[in-house]
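sanity check this:
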Amino acid sequence: MKPDELYEMLKKAQEPKGYFFNRDKERVLELMEGLLINKERYGYMSCPCRLSSGDREKDSDIICPCAYRTLDVEEYGSCYCNLYVSRDWNEDKIPHRYVPERRPPEKFFL
């Protein structure tokens, strides 16, 4: 699968739920490529903005869309990666603020 194919597939699945891709399509396609690389590498599409362990169970909270997306978009209008955003975020109706990492430190794999 190519990044643009993944984009179209996920767009159709997520927009009805109120999650939109960042209007910066170049950035979004880079993230799609990262998701596909992680799928090839680990067998699942872990968040390209976070370090994956390679263990699906340990990484279950960061398989895209991650477990933190809903709260991030509700509070900031964007997820941690700025991949999924609200309509208001895309239309500049709310400020584009820094989204802090919600993943607990004990889940980080170094």
